[in-house]
Amino acid sequence: MKITHVEVWRQEFRLRTSYAVAYGSFDSAGVVFVRIHTSRGKSGLGCAAPDPHVTGETAEEVEVALKDSAVALLRGRDPLRMERRMEQIAKPLASFPSARAAVDMALYDILGLVADLPVYKLIGGYRQSIKTSVTIGILPEDETVRAAVDFQRQGFRALKVKGGLDAESDAARVRAVRAAVGPAMEIRFDANQGYTSDQTVTFVDLTRDAHVAVIEQPTPGGQLELLGRVTRRVSIPVMADESMMTLRDAFRLARRGLVDMVNV
Prior knowledge:
By secondary structure, this protein is of the alpha/beta class. The protein has 9 helices and 9 strands. Strand 7, helix 8 and strand 8 (about 240) form a beta-alpha-beta unit.
């Protein structure tokens, strides 16, 4: 089996409602798709979701990088030698992590089709389903509560509330959500790098009765030691997101016990 050609295209998705996080607000999301075609008629699909504040790329840059580098490097190669293919694109796409992720997804998609197995089984997964959260961006308290109640009525069992601009007002919103949705709903909180260590502790202390399940990336992504200090100071699990951009980051975080979990 050989890779015959690679398609790359960018698509802009309009959001139903604008979406605010600690570092900005959005009314659309630009993504880049990769489809790898093979000589046996099987094709794999991958998707890049770049974010300048997180991955350091724009969708336009990712599209150009993939077309300029990945397409030629992959053509004529064996898609089942996945690590070799990823090694080939690692240097030219070194500054484009979401582009590399899209190719990786597409290659795994092909592997699953060849093996006639879902990818989660190929990599050792055993669950038939997992509980995922639906996200509420930064909104005024009353709008946050309305959104939470609406999602609960739709059947969601976990909410992720965004914040990171002000620990006290964030805590008030989370407490109001807990009062509105009751004790059974899982509430997660994502500060998107917006807090200092002390602000994180303030937020956790103020929401103790709201039983927040996890706080995600409270401090700047590049400051791993600061994230570790937060983990040691608070009573709830701390999750890394923007701090984990590479496999090496995962090793650093785990080896030094800087966080309780990671978001991939």
